[in-house]
Amino acid sequence: MNFNFKFYTNGVREFFYWEDNTSLFNYRYQPIKKDLDFTQSLLDFLDLDMNDYFDICTEISEGLQGLYKDPNASVKSLLFSFDKLSGTHVYFEFLRLQWHEKLNSFAAGTLAGDIREELRYKDITHIPMNINTAQDQIKYMFKNALDTTAIREQAEQYNVTDLYDKTLRSDGNPFEFRQITTGFERIGDSEMVEVLYPADMLDIVDYTLREIIRREIKFKVCKNCGEYFPTIAHGNTEFCNRL
After folding, report:
1. Domain limits for position 40
2. Fewest Cβ atoms closer than 10 Å to its Cβ: which of 45, 47, 168, 212?
């Protein structure tokens, strides 16, 4: 790959790092680092309204199908659309880098394999539906295992295990964990951390959920806005810090 994207957390903050080494139109992105309160990116992901994404995903899909018909077609509008997507949530930065690399290869005439397989328009068409499914699965897990608004004396590890055990005997719909790629790296002068190298945008969701369960992060429903928030720093508060 001509780009680098990684994600890690210390349990209090979450860190994203990415850089694009492609040379499309002689433009290169400088390395970018972004950090948020741990779980914030996931909670923002749950708030995404997929009705806002159908049009742009359809537009990109139609643009990709246009490349099938015309090998000399410009990819500038497609690049712009992926840039637009990446501005809506940090997880889409990975998708942008992934597709910039593919479109760069197409523009340079070095795309290997069948264009219809390498630039699959259905991968984009299905994004809203796939995200909707993931959102529903995560909300199901929060409600039934991670929400401490209802009194739960058991640890989150047990709650999640119990949830999956019950799901095997019911029609429940928890998140389906997948195989992901991680490394162990030195960060800064003295810290060694596990780092995720996603192969798919939803790998970041997967890794974050694992860390939530492993670190026994608890959540409450804010009495003001009705949304979930983590009780990492102030476990007794009843309100989140959203504006």
Report:
1. 3-230
2. 168
